[in-house]
Amino acid sequence: MSLSTSTEFPEGYGNFKLISNDGVAFHFPKFLLSYQSPVFEGMFAACSPNAASSYELQLTEDSDTLDCFLRYLDPKKKFVPPAINLVRPLLEASRKYDVPAIAEWWEEQLMIRWKGVPASPDEIARPMECLAVASQFNLEKLARIALRELIKAPIADLKSDVTFESRMFMHLISLRANRVDWFETKFASFYATIPSINCNSSYYHDYMHKAVKVITRELYQEPSWKTINRHLSDWPVYCSHFQASQSLFNSWKGEIEALEAELPELPSHE
Question: Which pTM was predicted?
C-alpha cells in the first residue's frame, strides 16, 4: 500500500511514525506518546535501548480516528470535537491505548450540553447514540443522563443506526412505559371526575373527554411535560371550569419536572 502523509503530523514533526489502516502516515513525538499513553510507554520500554530513535508502527485505526486521537494527545494541536460517527472508534482507541482522559472529556461535553450550555458539535449530544456508546464503554453516569433524556424524548429520537446493547434498550423501553403509566394514572383520576362536575355548558364535558384522550395518546409518543404544555398554551376559557382544569394541570408541572430531572437506575447485570 502506498502511503500518504498527514498534513497535521508531517515528516519531521516527530520521530515515531504511526500508520493508519487506510495508509496515512502520522509522524509524532515518541516522548509524547510515551507520556500520554501507558501502552506506548510499555512498548517503548520493551524495545532495545540500542535501537534507532526512529520507529514506525502499523495501527488498526483509520486516519480520521488517529488524527483525532493524536490531536488530543498533542497540546500544540487544536483538538476538534469528533462527529458522532467518530466517537465510538475514538473511545475504542482511548481504551486500547489507556488514555481515559478522552472518555472523561466526552462525558464532560455531554454534561455541559445537557445543562443547557451549547457544546460543539451538536451531534455529540444525541442521547440515543450517547446511550449506546456509554453502555459499551461503561460510562455509567453518562448512561443514566442519556436514559433520563430519552425517557421524555419524542419517540422519533429513539431511532438509531448504531449497534445497541439489547439489555440497555429494553431497560429504556421499560422506563418509558413506566413514565407513560404514571401519566395515565394522573389523567385517569382527573378523567373520573369529569362527569361529576356540574357545568351548565355541555361543551366542557365534551371538550375534556376529547382533550384527555388526545393528550394521553400523545404521551405515548412523548411522555413529558412538554406534551401537556402544548395543549395548555391554547386552552379555551369558556367558563370557570376550564380555568380550574387548566390550573390543575399546571399544578402538576413541578412534580413532573422533578420526576424528569431524576437520574434513573441502570439495568441490573443479572
Answer: 0.75
List, in sequence order, every beta strand (DSSP E) within the chain.
4-5, 16-19, 24-28, 55-58
Q: What are the tens digits of pLDDT across the range 180-196?
A: 999 999 988 887 777 66
In angstroms, the CA 255 to CA 225 distance is: 10
**29 prior amide bond cis, ω within 30:** no
Inter-residue contact 94 to 103 (CB < 8 Å): yes
Q: Which of 114, 115, 13 is closest to 67 using CA atoms?
A: 13
pLDDT in tens, 88-120: 899 999 999 999 999 888 888 777 766 654 444
Residues 6+ apart with CB under 8 A from 17: 25, 26, 27, 28, 54, 55, 56, 57
State the residue for C-alpha cell 503530523: 9
The answer to whether the CB of 128 falls within 8 A of the CB of 158 is yes
Q: Which parts of 153-252 fold into alpha helices (H)?
A: 166-191, 202-221, 225-232, 240-251
Query: Exposed (0-12), middle (13-18) or buried (19+): which is 156, by Cβ within 10 Å?
Result: exposed
